[in-house]
Amino acid sequence: MPTTVLRDIGTLVTNDPALGNGPLGLRRDAAVVFDDAQVVWVGDSADAPAADQAVDLDGRAVLPGFVESHSHLVFAGDRADEFAARMSGRPYGAGGIRTTIAATRAATDEQLDATVRRLLAESLRAGSTTVEIKSGYGQTVDDEWRSVRIAGRHTDEVTLLAAHVPPPEYAGCADDYVTMVCAEMIPRCAPEARWIDVFCEQGAFDRDQSHAVLSAGIAHGLVPRVHGNQLHQGPGVQLAVELGAASVDHVAHVSAADIDALANSDTVATLLPSADFCTRNSYPDARALLDAGVTVALGADCNPGTSYTTSLPFCIALAVRELRMTPDEAVWAATAGGAKALRRGDIGALSPGMRADAVALDAPSHLHLAYRPGVPLVRQVWRGGVLASN
Ligand code: NIG
Ligand code: FE
């Protein structure tokens, strides 16, 4: 594959402090060279080496591709009516998930695959070059198995959300559902996934049930991540830390002890402000988390119930306006933070050796992602060195 030089970059976000200013490793008037699927050179545009192809950015900003570490793309149907009812005052509860479970079970593999493709194309246009995909709308062995298989056609980051909500046939006997998940679902589905997830929340699964599911996943070689503390203060954060989870996601309702536990752990707090926006939930206290030294990622949480968006730029704008993150913190969280949440050392930064995943904006700097909310600023996306969309 030919080498490519991106030159005359107005502001380059490298996320490598050794290459530029601050935690984002910012450089002005910069260039980047890709060789095949890898970044091989970063420096001043004036010093850029020749390459087989040259792309003139005309002073536009270039960032690492966004790393979406939390999405639920394997589903059928939508819940626009539930959203409208919520906007008229009905609160969000975990039970709405069952509507999507029914629609997903009734869908064909081809229908589910087409939805995943459509939403991945949408997220790519918004700049996401890596997308984690969860199962969780099947909640039978066969339906979860086909969900992780379909997800695995499109990403290496497949999560078995084995326990999302007790399905209707297990109403009132969540313990029996958990027993089935541990004995049958996880052994069958684990070879198709990298991660195990559980919705630890009132109306979904309690601490002991969540612990059982995550432990069974770990015993089958999966690494835990947790939906925790989304709607209420609960045991999700502590459980995630205790089990060495890669991330605990949502964390909108946390105690001082939860923040302390996260700060002293390798567990990333993944904030999903578009879910809080679409459910009128309180936003997480990102300032308290960041000021305590917690590693924070941002995700869009695309799903038909709480957050039917694939746009990390929208989440960056929300994180800055509503979570009081600085624009630099929000951009880091949607790139390097997502990579940390997925325990990936090859993405989330633009420095030699990293994967050639990059986004060029129709703007001179990354600040415009928050400064110009709702404007589709992503102009070009390279994934593995290939121009993926423009
Ligand atoms: O991340 N919280 C649990 N799961 C999804 C919502 C699922 C749904 O409502 O369909 C979330 O918000
Ligand atoms: Fe989620």
Summary keywords:
17 strands, alpha/beta, 390 residues, 13 helices, binds fe (iii) ion, Urease, subunit C, domain 1, seven-stranded parallel beta sheet, 2 domains, binds N-(iminomethyl)-L-glutamic acid, TIM Barrel
Element layout with pairings:
Layout: E1 3-12, E2 27-35, E3 38-44, E4 53-56, E5 62-64, E6 66-68, H1 80-87, H2 97-106, H3 109-125, E7 128-131, E8 133-134, H4 141-152, E9 158-163, H5 174-189, E10 195-200, H6 207-219, E11 223-228, H7 236-242, E12 247-250, H8 256-263, E13 268-271, H9 273-279, H10 286-291, E14 296-298, H11 312-321, H12 327-341, E15 358-361, H13 368-371, E16 378-383, E17 386-389
Parallel strand pairs: 1-4, 6-7, 8-9, 9-10, 10-11, 11-12, 12-13, 13-14
Antiparallel strand pairs: 1-2, 2-3, 5-15, 15-16, 16-17
Helix pairs in contact: 3-4, 4-5, 5-6, 11-12
The structure holds N-(iminomethyl)-L-glutamic acid and fe (iii) ion.
Residues 70, 72, 227, 301, 303 line the site of fe (iii) ion (FE).
Please explain how this structure is put together.
- It is a single chain.
- The protein is globular and about 65 Å long.
- The two termini are 20 Å apart.
- The protein has helices spanning 80-87, 97-106, 109-125, 141-152, 174-189, 207-219, 236-242, 256-263, 273-279, 286-291, 312-321, 327-341, 368-371; strands at residues 3-12, 27-35, 38-44, 53-56, 62-64, 66-68, 128-131, 133-134, 158-163, 195-200, 223-228, 247-250, 268-271, 296-298, 358-361, 378-383, 386-389.
- The protein is 34% helix and 22% strand.
- The longest helix is centred in the N-terminal third of the chain and has 17 residues, at 109-125.
- It contains 13 helices and 17 strands.
- Strands 8-9-10-11-12-13-14 form a seven-stranded parallel sheet.
- It folds into two domains: 4-65 and 348-389, Urease, subunit C, domain 1; 66-342, TIM Barrel (Alpha-Beta Barrel), CATH 3.20.20.140.
- It is an alpha/beta fold.
- The relative contact order is 0.16.
- Fe (iii) ion is lined by residues 70, 72, 227, 301, 303.
- Zn(2+) binds at residues 70, 72, 227, 301.
- Belongs to the metallo-dependent hydrolases superfamily. HutI family.
- Pfam families: Amidohydro_1.
